[in-house]
Write a structure and sequence with these properties.
The structure is a single chain. With about 500 residues, the protein is of the alpha/beta class. Helices cover about 40% and strands about 15% of the residues. Helix 12 crosses helix 13. The protein binds pyridoxal-5'-phosphate (PLP). Pyridoxal-5'-phosphate (PLP) binds next to helix 4.
């Protein structure tokens, strides 16, 4: 997205290597050209430019699927011209989305009667799914408050400080106060005890994460459910839970079937999952499922009929492609429980290979858990000369995209590197990555520290404090200050790769 940026002189036109065979004039960069060009030239120009994009398979920053079977690619291409919203024209596509909703609802143990169908919808991703789920909670809470004759203008939502940015978006766009449970050293997910303490009569729901974006850890939804049940009993409120299972929703049911995090817990009213993460579909699909019809206020559903028969819809956008819905259906029936289980087990095994390889170097602390999302989050044991941002930068030279980022409050002094293990990240690649990380460390060991300037600034601050009679700082405090100062240096180039 470009919000605003001034173009420099050299930015105004684009040139292409081979397109000169077809056209000799260069194309304006930010204006629609006056004349047409041959289709071969357009193809060549764009193809040449895209060559400089990274290789999606080496993008270890992302949870999003980068490989599907050719048979599914074929189905995707065949439906690329179908607008999903024309449900009356494409009743079969609509039927496939409904089958997906029901399959996922059953996977999440929705309490459905024999002839009952699930309540849910396909979305562009978990972000849209979360906006919809959040709106349903907000509206339900408002309706209840109105009926009780109580004020309904200060809704809040309780989450961990580790939430994905889409929850902050929901809060800001839909005017709900975000109450974040702070993290602490060595504990990087929402503490259910603290979350329940923060709940008040204006809380529309508590959002728990199954698979924290930062370190893959599953939050303890069962404990949250039990504590909240108790609080509801004591206060007479009926605060409930949304589970953000963006990545964990297609992992836990296959790898930890006994783990209770879903509709088996009575207070869980809605769950979102990203079809394009461990649902194994290319970017552009997510799902939100409600426990029952009562959990989705009727007034949020729109009925449209100008494309044919009456169609209920609950989405933020109108038109969108059908391909991703069809691709999701393909994966669900192609893989079945067995296929998903095999793939998830393999991902987890490769995560262990990577983790053990990193441990063997003796240079890293592992901050991810073995039983969450298959990812490895790690930080350097020794920051005195070099930091994780440098490791990330140097790895790019080998083609690897491994993001480095700082944890949210109150653990922001901790920086981690994160590698997401997807289906297409093989054991060979895991071993290769460890090898390249070792090379990077070796290279950095030979270099003077980039941190010297930051350390100097800290030293000046220290000296002043000593002069002013401040107490002597612990090693940890000094480390935090160095990190803070250093963060200011890197802020400019830091584009957060956490997604
Ligand atoms: C990825 C992610 C999201 C956002 O999902 P999209 O499908 O990319 O919109 C939300 N929450 C969590 C926990 C995530 O991992």
């Amino acid at each position: 997205m470009v919000l605003s940026k001034t173009a420099s002189e050299s930015d105004v036109s684009i040139h292409s290597t081979f397109a000169s065979r077809y056209v000799r004039t260069s194309l304006p960069r930010f204006k629609i050209p006056e004349n047409s060009i041959p289709k071969e030239a357009a193809y060549q120009i764009i193809n040449d430019e895209l060559m400089l994009d990274g290789n999606p398979r080496l993008n270890l920053a992302s949870f999003v699927t980068t490989w599907m079977e050719p048979e599914c690619d074929k189905l995707i291409m065949a439906s690329i011209n179908k607008n999903y919203v024309d449900m009356d024209e494409y009743p079969v596509t609509t039927e496939l989305q409904n089958r997906c909703v029901n399959m996922i609802a059953h996977l999440f143990n929705a309490p459905l009667g024999d002839s009952e169908t699930a309540v849910g919808v396909g979305t562009v991703g978990s972000s849209e799914a979360i906006m919809l789920a959040g709106l349903a909670f907000k509206r339900k809470w408002q309706n209840k408050r109105k009926a009780e004759g109580k004020p309904y203008d200060k809704p809040n939502i309780v989450t961990g400080a580790n939430v994905q940015v889409c929850w902050e978006k929901f809060a800001r766009y839909f005017e709900v106060e975000l109450k974040e449970v702070k993290l602490r050293d060595g504990y990087y997910v929402m503490d259910p005890v603290k979350a329940v303490e923060m709940v008040d009569e204006n809380t529309i729901c508590v959002a728990a994460i199954l698979g924290s974006t930062l370190n893959g850890e599953f939050e303890d939804v069962k404990l949250l459910n039990d504590l909240l049940l108790k609080k509801n009993e004591e206060t007479g409120w009926d605060t409930s839970i949304h589970v953000d299972a963006a990545s964990g929703g297609f992992i836990a049911p296959f790898l930890n079937p006994e783990l209770e995090w879903d509709f088996r817990l009575p207070l869980v009213k809605s769950i979102n999952v990203s079809g394009h993460k461990y649902g194994l579909v290319y970017a552009g699909i997510g799902w939100v499922i409600w426990r029952s019809k009562e959990d989705l206020p009727e007034e949020l559903i729109f009925h449209i009929n100008y494309l044919g028969a009456d169609q209920p819809t609950f989405t933020l956008n109108f038109s969108k492609g059908s391909s991703q819905v069809i691709a999701q259906y393909y994966q669900l029936i192609r893989l079945g429980h067995e296929g998903y289980r095999n793939i998830m087990e393999n991902c987890r095994e490769n995560a262990v290979v990577l983790k053990e390889g990193l441990e063997k170097t003796g240079r890293f602390n592992i901050v991810s858990k073995d039983d969450g999302v298959p990812l490895v989050a790690f930080s350097l044991k020794d920051h005195s000369l070099h930091d994780e941002f440098e490791v990330s930068d140097y790895l790019r030279r080998f083609g690897w995209i491994v993001p480095a980022y700082t944890m949210p409050p109150d653990a922001q002094h901790v920086t981690v590197l994160r590698v997401v293990i997807r289906e297409d990240f093989s054991r060979t690649l895991a071993e290769r990555l460890v090898f390249d990380i070792e090379k990077v460390l070796h290279e950095l060991d030979q270099l003077p520290s980039k941190l010297t300037t930051a350390a100097k600034v800290t030293a000046v601050v220290d000296e002043k404090k000593v002069r002013n009679g401040a107490v002597k700082k612990t090693a940890l405090e000094t480390q935090r200050e160095i990190t803070d100062v250093w963060m200011k240096f890197v802020q400019a180039r830091k584009t957060n790769g956490v997604c």
